[in-house]
Design goal:
With 193 residues, the protein is α+β, with helices and mostly antiparallel strands. It has one domain. 39% of the residues lie in helices and 16% in strands. The protein has 8 helices and 7 strands. It has a 5-stranded antiparallel sheet with strand order 1-2-3-4-5. A two-stranded antiparallel sheet has the order 6-7. It is globular. The chain starts with 9 loop residues before the first helix and ends with a helix.
């Protein structure tokens, strides 16, 4: 446990303390944000019942996409709740079934793209050709992740997203449709797949 009181989530407090000591990104485009802010997600719905179910904690990419914990239910441990990405281009999607899954996804060091029809990640070849990657900061993160959680990078970030979708997609689409007109119709193909 840490004295850093960034949030009510011990895992996020540890991540915040770790990332605060770095000069560079440890995962492409990821940056901690003010915990619980509604800025950026309030464009989807200003309904207090909607906003109360999300806890923003990080930037998903350098262009404004956000990661938020989705309070799918009232369980005490926020780290066991699913993570959603609100895209800067207007998409919103599940990305991880738990916070620890997201920590593994961050270890992949891929650019995250959040579109209306899904999530995608940059590839190793694309990143190498563009000179992207988080280098030494990523190595420090991998050591931190192993030390604190016994986890490493998942070689398939898409698999993390797929597991979250399998666990929560139907509930998420139905819940979002209560606040965003036409959301279920727009995402019907995700429920069929």
């Amino acid at each position: 446990m840490t004295d850093d009181v960034y949030s009510p989530v011990p895992e996020l407090n540890l991540l915040h303390a770790f990332s605060s000591g770095l000069a560079d990104y440890f995962s492409q485009g990821f940056e901690m944000e003010q915990f619980g802010s509604a800025a950026g997600i309030d464009t989807w719905s200003a309904d207090p019942a909607f906003l109360d179910r999300f806890r923003v904690f990080g930037q998903a990419n350098g262009s404004g996409s956000l990661y938020a914990i989705w309070r799918v239910d009232d369980r005490e441990d926020l780290a066991d709740l699913p993570i959603v990405a609100f895209g800067d281009e207007g998409g919103v999607h599940l990305v991880a079934a738990t916070l620890r899954d997201l920590l593994q996804l961050l270890a992949c060091d891929r650019c995250v793209y959040v579109f209306h029809d899904g999530i995608s990640f940059s590839g190793e070849e694309e990143d190498a050709a563009d000179g992207r990657g988080s280098g030494e900061a990523r190595e420090l993160y991998l050591a931190w992740l192993k030390r604190h959680f016994g986890l490493g990078a998942d070689e398939d970030p898409g698999g993390i997203v797929l597991a979250a979708e399998e666990a929560y997609q139907t509930r998420f689409v139905a819940w979002m449709d209560r606040y965003v007109d036409g959301f279920a119709e727009e995402h019907a193909e995700l429920l069929e797949g």
